[in-house]
Protein: Beta-phosphoglucomutase
Organism: Flectobacillus longus
Amino acid sequence: MTTVKACLFDLDGVIVDTAVYHFQAWRRLANELCFDFTEHQNEQLKGISRMESLELILNWGGVSLTEEEKIAWATKKNQWYLDLVMQMTPNEVLPGVPDFLKSLRENGIKIALGSASKNSKLILEKIQMLDYFDAIIDGNNITKGKPDPQVFLMGAEATGVQPTECVVFEDAVAGVQAAKAGGMKAVGVGSADILTEADIVISTFEGFSVEKLLQM
Ligand code: BG6
Ligand code: MG
């Protein structure tokens, strides 16, 4: 049995599926700049920051902008994204997540958020999950994005737990890499074909339990 004293969760794609809203808002930006991109390309945007995402998308469209224009477009995209986020409800929490977090609590395991998003608190509020977390580290706190381990190392520190006693839950390749770079175990949430560096991969939290966590 391994000792697990804290679980660190990515937000987008792990707690809730906001990727569809990010995709919609980024696509609107691309369309206004007269190009388009696919859902397949959108996979590459998972886990990376807003400005890094914008750079990739502009590259796909062959569009070059000044720094000021980039900031203006990123701000527009975020507003479109927030219009969608404001309509979110607790029904959008991914299956099995609340029960798993409750059982972590009951077993004295700390819970932290480690997300690249600058909107994480608003999203957690909309889905009524804010109270589950002992610590929240997000895009507002970090200087280095995933795959750098900073976000998770800060989460470990905020919960007072050694990285080796933390388990990270991630749906993005860059996020799994960040966990491993931080010396933590990683549970991939999604497809084993994509999250090849994770210690284990689950497709949903339904059926996952603290017992299974401790057997990792
Ligand atoms: C990550 C998402 O969680 O947050 C990325 O996977 C997103 O797609 C990033 O770009 C930043 O989010 P936000 O909400 O600050 O634009
Ligand atoms: Mg994610």
About this structure: Residues 67-85 form the longest helix (19 residues). The chain has a mean pLDDT of 97.
